[in-house]
Amino acid sequence: MSSLKHAMRNRRDQGRTAHREQRQQQAIAALAVLDCLRGVSTTELTTLYELGVFRVFPSGATVIGQRRGYRYLFFLLRGSLQLRLRDKDGREVLMGILGQGDCFGEGPLFGKFFRHMSALTQDTCYLLQIDITTLREELAALPLLTTALRKVYRRRMVEATLARIPILSQLLPIERISIAARLQPRHVPRGTVIVKQGEPADSLYLIENGQVVIEQSGQTIAILNEGDLFGEISLLTGEPHRATTRALTTTDLLELPGAEFYRLINQYPALETELRAIAERRLKHSAAVRSDAARARDIELAVHRGILRATHILVRDPARCPPGCRLCETGCASRHGHSRLHLNGTPIERFDVLDNCRQCSVGAECVEACPEDAIERVDTGALRITNRCTGCGECVTACPYDAVQTVPRAKYQTGPLWDLFRRWQQRIRPTIPLATSIPTHRADKCDLCFGYADLACVSACPIGNLRLAPVEEIVPV
Fold this sequence. Notes:
Layout: H1 2-32, H2 42-51, E1 52-57, E2 62-64, E3 72-78, E4 81-86, E5 92-98, E6 103-104, E7 117-121, E8 125-131, H3 132-138, H4 143-164, H5 166-169, H6 173-180, E9 184-188, E10 193-195, E11 203-209, E12 212-216, E13 219-224, E14 229-230, H7 232-237, E15 244-247, E16 251-257, H8 258-267, H9 269-291, H10 293-304, E17 312-316, H11 327-336, E18 342-348, E19 351-355, H12 365-369, E20 375-377, E21 383-385, H13 394-398, E22 405-408, H14 416-428, E23 441-444, H15 456-460, E24 467-470, H16 471-474
Antiparallel strand pairs: 1-8, 2-7, 3-6, 3-8, 4-5, 4-7, 9-16, 10-15, 11-14, 11-16, 12-13, 12-15, 17-19, 17-24, 18-19, 20-21, 22-23
Helix pairs in contact: 1-2, 4-6, 8-9
């Protein structure tokens, strides 16, 4: 009797296994026909299936938004949803309608978070949800999937750049896609002169990622960021460039050749009106900066000290601080073992902008220099040094603002047992070790008190004089 039960149990197990395998094959076949996954091998699709969770969202649900969803990549198996974002003026823009075969949420895989993007379902949507952190660890073994997702990411970066430009955000998504087809991508290293004062204009430039500085006769008059454009004044007036534009960081541009520019404004006359208004405001701004020595000095200082690389900065009004008070530095040191910030940094009008890490929003030199990929951007926007740091010091020398320092590793263990353990390690190593196995130091910098509910320096200020302020509030450019 027991053998009969055992045989029946085996048949049931075999049946369940066959059923699971059949469901897996059906799911993988469904993934294979998605437009965004065409050309991805069955082996890689199997890995994707194993990493995923199938989700159903009702009509009107928010799948991703400004405060949720950036941890996941989604594949749309059935249904439709709206992809929306906010332009530089804060207005919500319809970026596009996604349907079966599309994916979204891929930005964090390639360094771009699209923090102002949201996805709202138009009807019941069936999605495959993949944890971004888990997928990132597997990407090296998934080259075809990586290529497919990077293609989606590249297209979406262009679409997002156009949608964030106020004069283009009011166009229909299909019209922006038409414009996108005319653009030529261009990557420029930091320090590159993109256009030179006095030279004729031949293109309009849109900043997809990065920062550029505008200089007129050697004087800094403005900083432009992601979603800004330049070159329009000379194209509209037919005169040579009135200023030099130089890449402050590594920068990705979308270049619209002059001939295409004139075709575009003939096709959309309202764009020419908007561009002329922008040009007029910029001409007034440059004249105002040139005539105001104090303002010109503040902008120059802000560029030199990296203040405009930040989105938020720590500032105080020195006139309000009690004489000799340094409680903010003490509070920082009490929490972190040493102070990560310093008073009397950069004077901007009546403010003192403290010396600390700027959390460079784009093109951070420390991130580029780190050989261990040990510096990551967290959800708050801060750059955090992880435990992968080996203390090599590359980031210390790479930072142009002296914001990174080398400190003793707090968790470096000492004592007789640890000494015995290290001697044992020495015996099993080669005679001449290639590297120290247990680093005694590590890099450290301000990460806006990552992992804490407050900023130690701000909380330590007894009169509330120290605060984290938006950079445009302190240095309006």
